[in-house]
Amino acid sequence: MTKKRRITIKDIAKEAEVSPTTVSNVIRKNYQHVSPETVEKIEKIIQEKGYVPNMLARSLVKKHSKIIGIINCLIPTERGSFVQDPFHTVFIGGVERELSGRGYFSMLRTISSADELLVLLKNWNLAGIIITGVFEDEFFQVLKTSEIPVVLVDSYVKGNSFLKVGLEDFKGGYLATKYLIERGHREILFVSPKIKPKGVLEERLKGYKTALEEAGIPFKEKNVYEHGTKIGECILLGKNLSKREDFTAIFVTADIIAAGVMSGLAEMGVRIPDDVSIVGFDDLDISLLTRPKLTTIHQDVEKKGIIAAQMLVDYIEEKYIKEKEVILPVYIVERESVKNLKEF
User: Fold this and answer.
1) Residue 48 falls inside a structural domain
2) Which residues contact 39 (CB under 8 A, 6 or more apart)?
3) How many domains does the chain have?
């Protein structure tokens, strides 16, 4: 049986009556010096011939692959893949959308130790890394010694060698708490995943504290709950919170946790917002599925992913980058989960 010969760039160039360089530019989506008619002609031949670029050969020539590592070191591995988290699902969707449009590929990985990160960097010829949940710890030290371009997402670590995409986290915490205070709430709980120094959740907590201070409301440690993000855990937290009768509102730093807490409270007969008001954070689709619909702090999660990918690919391709750090805005989205006590 005769083995079918692999289609090459030269074959496509010959049929299209152009140079191999022109074909290569079209494959890499570098259309600056190629007419639209030629692009259409070459892409049609590529599709008809079923040509697949040899990524390994191209990576050896260019000293890197077209693979971007999307790495998470924030969510514990016992929770499983971080794509199970609604926030990361939307974020990865934004990254993937941009990478596919630029001719790059993505590799998803959750890492639990600095050693695991070292193994990944050593064994994969990555073009760059987009990484979430980095603090000033051993992960950060490994990244500092790597020559691979890195975009830090939602990280407050110092370092001019990194590209960064973040959020107005302090403002988000402040707006949520102030919104509740302006509607007559004074005993407001703060519910969040584990709060680490110099992280996004600490910034949101600072915003919460500042809003309380401005209103002359004492901060109470007993009102801060650090909690897991599994749905079952969040429902249980809601049930436990129903036993307290000394608060009227909760600010939750993630919509997924807020939805679970709401469910737990409802199971115990607590009415939202009549008995307890809740404000979430992220404005994910789940905030439209809760009953009542969740008032929340909006951030454009998909845009965060798109910008992270844009910055990284532009850097890899040595294009001009206007800003090495981009901070996205937040604002409150009013729905049905907050009661205005001043109206009663």
Assistant:
1) no
2) 26, 31
3) 2
Whether 139 and 129 have beta carbons less than 8 Å apart is answered as no
151 and 215 in a common domain: no
Reported confidence tier of residue 248, pLDDT bands at 50, 70, 90: very high
Q: Considering only CA atoms, which of 217, 203, 180 is closest in space to residue 253?
A: 203
Kindly give, in sequence order, each residue whose CB lies less than 8 Å from that of residue 274, ignoring residues fewer than 6 positions away.
Answer: 339
Determine, yes or no, domain membership for 188: yes
Q: For residue 313, what is the DSSP state?
A: H
% residues pLDDT > 90 (the chain): 52
What are the two backbone dihedrals, phi and then psi, of residue 213, each rounded to the nearest 5 degrees? Answer: -60, -45
Average pLDDT over residues 311-333: 90
Instruction: Indicate if 202 and 338 belong to the same structural domain.
Output: yes
Best CA proximity match to 251, nearest among 263, 261, 242? 261
For tokens 């050693």, the residue is 115
> CA distances (Å), 122 to each of 125, 146, 148, in order?
8, 10, 11
Phi-psi sector, 272: left (phi>0), alpha (psi -120 to 50), beta? beta
Model pTM score = 0.79
Per-residue pLDDT, 81: 52
Cβ atoms of 227 and 233 within 8 Å: the answer is yes
**Number of neighbours of residue 293 by Cβ within 10 angstroms:** 14
Residues 202 and 268 in one domain: yes
Domain that holds residue 292: 169-299+331-343
**Are 196 and 280 found together in one domain?**
yes
Residues 309, 176 share a domain: no
According to DSSP, the residues that pair with 71 across neighbouring strands are 109, 131
